[in-house]
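[Archive record]
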Amino acid sequence: MAKVLSPQLITAGNGLENLGGSGGTSLTLPTVSAQEEKQALAAELAATREQVSALQQDVLLLTLLLIAVLTILALGRYLRLFHFRLRRDDSDNRCHQRRCDELTGLCSRGQFEQQLAELAVSRRQGQYVVALINLDDFKQINDTYGFDAGDDVLVEFSNRVDAALRSSDLLVRWSGEEFLLLLAIGEPDAAERVLERLKDLVALEPFARKGGCLPVTVSVGASPVLTGQQLSAEWEHWFNKIDTALVQAKRQGRNRVVFSGTQISLEAVR
Protein backbone atom coordinates (compact mmCIF):
# COMPACT_ATOMS: atom_id res chain seq x y z
CA MET A 1 0.00 0.00 0.00
CA ALA A 2 1.39 3.36 -1.01
CA LYS A 3 2.24 5.99 1.60
CA VAL A 4 0.69 9.41 1.23
CA LEU A 5 2.93 12.34 1.88
CA SER A 6 1.58 15.21 3.83
CA PRO A 7 1.24 18.59 2.13
CA GLN A 8 3.81 20.09 4.56
CA LEU A 9 6.52 17.65 3.55
CA ILE A 10 5.77 18.22 -0.13
CA THR A 11 6.06 21.95 0.33
CA ALA A 12 9.36 21.66 2.24
CA GLY A 13 10.76 19.43 -0.44
CA ASN A 14 9.86 21.83 -3.15
CA GLY A 15 11.52 24.60 -1.21
CA LEU A 16 14.79 22.70 -0.93
CA GLU A 17 14.68 21.94 -4.62
CA ASN A 18 14.19 25.61 -5.39
CA LEU A 19 17.21 26.55 -3.19
CA GLY A 20 19.45 24.04 -4.86
CA GLY A 21 18.06 24.30 -8.36
CA SER A 22 19.57 26.25 -11.19
CA GLY A 23 16.52 28.42 -11.63
CA GLY A 24 16.35 29.56 -8.01
CA THR A 25 18.47 31.92 -5.90
CA SER A 26 21.63 30.07 -4.56
CA LEU A 27 22.96 30.52 -0.95
CA THR A 28 26.79 30.97 -0.99
CA LEU A 29 28.84 30.59 2.28
CA PRO A 30 32.08 32.69 2.64
CA THR A 31 35.22 30.61 2.24
CA VAL A 32 38.95 31.43 2.79
CA SER A 33 41.42 29.95 0.39
CA ALA A 34 44.73 28.42 1.50
CA GLN A 35 46.62 31.17 -0.29
CA GLU A 36 44.86 33.86 1.68
CA GLU A 37 45.56 32.02 4.92
CA LYS A 38 49.24 31.89 4.03
CA GLN A 39 49.29 35.60 3.26
CA ALA A 40 47.61 36.43 6.56
CA LEU A 41 50.05 34.25 8.50
CA ALA A 42 52.97 35.80 6.65
CA ALA A 43 51.75 39.32 7.46
CA GLU A 44 51.29 38.39 11.10
CA LEU A 45 54.74 36.82 11.21
CA ALA A 46 56.30 39.91 9.62
CA ALA A 47 54.62 42.15 12.18
CA THR A 48 55.87 39.92 14.98
CA ARG A 49 59.37 40.00 13.55
CA GLU A 50 59.25 43.80 13.41
CA GLN A 51 58.19 43.95 17.05
CA VAL A 52 60.95 41.54 18.05
CA SER A 53 63.48 43.54 16.05
CA ALA A 54 62.40 46.80 17.69
CA LEU A 55 62.59 45.14 21.11
CA GLN A 56 66.06 43.81 20.34
CA GLN A 57 67.18 47.28 19.31
CA ASP A 58 65.87 48.73 22.58
CA VAL A 59 67.64 46.02 24.58
CA LEU A 60 70.85 46.62 22.62
CA LEU A 61 70.62 50.37 23.19
CA LEU A 62 70.07 49.91 26.94
CA THR A 63 72.95 47.42 27.08
CA LEU A 64 75.29 49.84 25.31
CA LEU A 65 74.19 52.64 27.62
CA LEU A 66 74.83 50.47 30.68
CA ILE A 67 78.25 49.46 29.34
CA ALA A 68 79.09 53.13 28.73
CA VAL A 69 78.09 54.12 32.28
CA LEU A 70 80.07 51.24 33.81
CA THR A 71 83.05 52.11 31.63
CA ILE A 72 82.96 55.75 32.73
CA LEU A 73 82.72 54.73 36.39
CA ALA A 74 85.56 52.24 36.03
CA LEU A 75 87.68 54.78 34.16
CA GLY A 76 87.06 57.40 36.86
CA ARG A 77 88.03 54.93 39.57
CA TYR A 78 91.14 53.93 37.63
CA LEU A 79 92.17 57.54 37.12
CA ARG A 80 91.72 58.32 40.83
CA LEU A 81 93.76 55.24 41.72
CA PHE A 82 96.40 56.12 39.16
CA HIS A 83 96.62 59.68 40.46
CA PHE A 84 96.90 58.42 44.04
CA ARG A 85 99.65 55.95 43.12
CA LEU A 86 101.46 58.59 41.09
CA ARG A 87 101.44 61.02 44.03
CA ARG A 88 102.48 58.25 46.41
CA ASP A 89 105.33 57.16 44.15
CA ASP A 90 106.40 60.77 43.72
CA SER A 91 106.25 61.23 47.48
CA ASP A 92 108.22 58.02 48.00
CA ASN A 93 110.86 59.17 45.53
CA ARG A 94 111.13 62.55 47.21
CA CYS A 95 111.34 60.85 50.58
CA HIS A 96 114.17 58.66 49.40
CA GLN A 97 116.03 61.59 47.93
CA ARG A 98 115.38 63.91 50.85
CA ARG A 99 116.01 61.51 53.76
CA CYS A 100 112.47 61.68 55.10
CA ASP A 101 111.14 61.56 58.61
CA GLU A 102 110.05 57.98 59.32
CA LEU A 103 106.76 58.82 61.04
CA THR A 104 105.34 61.54 58.80
CA GLY A 105 107.20 60.93 55.55
CA LEU A 106 108.17 64.61 55.43
CA CYS A 107 111.62 65.91 54.70
CA SER A 108 114.12 66.03 57.52
CA ARG A 109 116.53 68.76 58.61
CA GLY A 110 119.22 67.28 56.41
CA GLN A 111 117.24 67.95 53.26
CA PHE A 112 116.44 71.50 54.35
CA GLU A 113 120.12 72.18 54.98
CA GLN A 114 120.84 70.85 51.51
CA GLN A 115 118.19 73.20 50.13
CA LEU A 116 119.83 76.14 51.89
CA ALA A 117 123.16 75.23 50.36
CA GLU A 118 121.57 75.14 46.91
CA LEU A 119 119.97 78.55 47.47
CA ALA A 120 123.37 80.01 48.35
CA VAL A 121 124.82 79.18 44.93
CA SER A 122 121.66 79.49 42.86
CA ARG A 123 121.58 82.16 40.19
CA ARG A 124 117.83 82.45 40.45
CA GLN A 125 116.77 85.45 42.52
CA GLY A 126 113.72 83.83 44.06
CA GLN A 127 111.77 85.15 47.00
CA TYR A 128 111.03 83.03 50.05
CA VAL A 129 109.28 83.07 53.41
CA VAL A 130 110.27 80.60 56.07
CA ALA A 131 107.81 79.74 58.84
CA LEU A 132 108.03 77.73 62.06
CA ILE A 133 104.79 75.87 62.85
CA ASN A 134 104.04 74.40 66.26
CA LEU A 135 101.04 72.26 67.26
CA ASP A 136 99.31 73.92 70.20
CA ASP A 137 99.05 72.00 73.50
CA PHE A 138 100.55 68.88 71.95
CA LYS A 139 101.90 67.66 75.28
CA GLN A 140 98.37 67.69 76.64
CA ILE A 141 97.25 65.52 73.70
CA ASN A 142 99.94 62.96 74.52
CA ASP A 143 99.16 63.05 78.24
CA THR A 144 95.39 62.74 77.76
CA TYR A 145 95.06 60.37 74.84
CA GLY A 146 98.43 58.63 74.70
CA PHE A 147 101.44 58.73 72.41
CA ASP A 148 99.71 56.75 69.65
CA ALA A 149 97.07 59.47 69.40
CA GLY A 150 99.85 62.06 69.32
CA ASP A 151 101.53 60.22 66.46
CA ASP A 152 98.23 60.07 64.58
CA VAL A 153 97.85 63.84 64.95
CA LEU A 154 101.36 64.43 63.61
CA VAL A 155 100.70 62.22 60.60
CA GLU A 156 97.31 63.79 59.86
CA PHE A 157 98.74 67.31 60.17
CA SER A 158 101.57 66.43 57.81
CA ASN A 159 99.19 64.95 55.25
CA ARG A 160 96.80 67.89 55.33
CA VAL A 161 99.40 70.59 55.00
CA ASP A 162 101.66 68.79 52.53
CA ALA A 163 98.69 68.08 50.23
CA ALA A 164 97.86 71.80 50.14
CA LEU A 165 101.37 72.90 49.17
CA ARG A 166 102.96 73.28 45.77
CA SER A 167 105.90 71.23 44.53
CA SER A 168 108.11 74.31 44.94
CA ASP A 169 107.37 74.49 48.69
CA LEU A 170 109.13 72.42 51.31
CA LEU A 171 107.61 71.14 54.56
CA VAL A 172 110.07 69.73 57.11
CA ARG A 173 109.50 67.99 60.41
CA TRP A 174 111.86 70.05 62.52
CA SER A 175 111.50 68.44 65.94
CA GLY A 176 108.69 66.71 67.82
CA GLU A 177 105.52 68.71 67.14
CA GLU A 178 107.40 71.52 65.35
CA PHE A 179 107.56 71.89 61.58
CA LEU A 180 109.47 74.21 59.28
CA LEU A 181 107.93 75.49 56.06
CA LEU A 182 109.84 77.06 53.17
CA LEU A 183 107.49 78.92 50.84
CA ALA A 184 108.50 80.10 47.40
CA ILE A 185 106.72 83.46 47.08
CA GLY A 186 105.73 85.08 43.82
CA GLU A 187 104.26 88.23 45.38
CA PRO A 188 104.80 89.81 48.81
CA ASP A 189 101.21 89.45 50.05
CA ALA A 190 100.97 85.78 49.14
CA ALA A 191 102.69 84.53 52.32
CA GLU A 192 99.99 85.91 54.61
CA ARG A 193 97.22 84.28 52.61
CA VAL A 194 98.99 80.93 52.40
CA LEU A 195 99.87 80.73 56.09
CA GLU A 196 96.42 81.83 57.21
CA ARG A 197 94.87 79.25 54.92
CA LEU A 198 97.11 76.49 56.28
CA LYS A 199 96.32 77.52 59.86
CA ASP A 200 92.58 77.33 59.13
CA LEU A 201 93.03 74.05 57.30
CA VAL A 202 94.17 72.56 60.60
CA ALA A 203 91.76 74.31 62.95
CA LEU A 204 88.45 74.14 61.07
CA GLU A 205 88.22 70.36 60.83
CA PRO A 206 88.84 68.24 63.95
CA PHE A 207 91.28 65.37 63.63
CA ALA A 208 89.66 61.93 63.58
CA ARG A 209 90.82 59.40 66.15
CA LYS A 210 89.50 56.23 67.71
CA GLY A 211 86.56 57.10 69.91
CA GLY A 212 85.88 60.57 68.52
CA CYS A 213 87.36 63.72 67.04
CA LEU A 214 90.13 65.88 68.42
CA PRO A 215 90.37 69.65 67.82
CA VAL A 216 93.88 70.76 66.89
CA THR A 217 95.32 74.23 66.27
CA VAL A 218 98.74 75.57 65.35
CA SER A 219 100.75 78.71 66.03
CA VAL A 220 103.02 80.10 63.33
CA GLY A 221 106.05 82.38 63.38
CA ALA A 222 107.15 83.61 59.95
CA SER A 223 109.92 85.65 58.37
CA PRO A 224 109.50 88.57 56.01
CA VAL A 225 110.07 87.97 52.30
CA LEU A 226 113.75 87.12 51.72
CA THR A 227 115.94 86.20 48.80
CA GLY A 228 117.51 82.78 48.72
CA GLN A 229 120.96 84.29 49.31
CA GLN A 230 119.74 86.26 52.33
CA LEU A 231 118.12 83.22 53.83
CA SER A 232 121.16 81.02 53.30
CA ALA A 233 123.78 83.55 54.43
CA GLU A 234 121.89 84.62 57.56
CA TRP A 235 120.02 81.46 58.43
CA GLU A 236 120.70 81.45 62.18
CA HIS A 237 119.65 85.08 62.43
CA TRP A 238 116.35 84.48 60.64
CA PHE A 239 115.65 81.26 62.48
CA ASN A 240 115.94 83.11 65.78
CA LYS A 241 113.57 85.74 64.39
CA ILE A 242 110.87 83.26 63.43
CA ASP A 243 111.32 81.38 66.72
CA THR A 244 110.70 84.64 68.58
CA ALA A 245 107.64 85.30 66.40
CA LEU A 246 106.35 81.83 67.24
CA VAL A 247 106.70 82.51 70.96
CA GLN A 248 104.78 85.74 70.45
CA ALA A 249 101.98 83.84 68.69
CA LYS A 250 101.74 81.50 71.67
CA ARG A 251 101.56 84.42 74.10
CA GLN A 252 98.81 86.07 72.10
CA GLY A 253 96.57 83.05 72.57
CA ARG A 254 97.73 80.44 70.02
CA ASN A 255 96.04 79.54 66.73
CA ARG A 256 97.49 82.55 64.94
CA VAL A 257 100.26 83.73 62.60
CA VAL A 258 102.89 86.29 63.63
CA PHE A 259 105.44 87.70 61.20
CA SER A 260 108.94 88.52 62.39
CA GLY A 261 109.66 92.23 62.75
CA THR A 262 106.06 93.27 63.37
CA GLN A 263 105.34 91.02 66.37
CA ILE A 264 101.69 91.72 65.60
CA SER A 265 99.36 88.82 65.01
CA LEU A 266 97.25 88.86 61.91
CA GLU A 267 94.35 87.79 64.10
CA ALA A 268 94.90 90.79 66.37
CA VAL A 269 94.83 93.20 63.43
CA ARG A 270 91.43 91.93 62.42
